[in-house]
User: Fold this.
Amino acid sequence: MWPWGHAATGYLLYAAYTRLRYDRPPDGPATLLLLFGTQLPDLIDKPLAWTLLVLPSGRSLGHSLLLLVPLVLIAAVVVRNRDTEWAIALAVGALSHAIVDVLPAALRGEFAYTTSLVWPLLPPPPYDEQGRTIIGQFLSLEPTPMLTFELVLALVAVAVWWRQGRPGIDTIRAVVVARDG
Ligand SMILES: [Zn+2]
Assistant:
């Protein structure tokens, strides 16, 4: 899945959660942490695997529950006295990314492509990643049904986010003003 697909999935899941639990939209800081979480697995794995060649796959360490679950628990302890919602937002973002990445393969019964969830206990998914680069990945974008689906999903998520008062914008503005002031 592409970055916008992960961002959209994470936002829609988290917005549903805050609606059910608190009957309100996500707040600003939680939305920003959520977005960070939705990109975190690829921010860890793609540069380390494709640019620095220190990981065996672009879906390994950052996509593994063996890293993500402890990371989320540490985040929960760190923010405990401030707002547990922040840790939940990060968890929804990062875990939804790792799970959504393997979902199509799991539904097809191709479990060799779901091993990123428990790397390094199992070898990484057998994708041919020889010579892949981050820029090359974006240049290889092709109009597939999956790409269309992800773009529609992103549009739906942006529409929901807009209707919910664009949470996160005020937080960014406050940080910028505080820094300039
Ligand atoms: Zn990924």
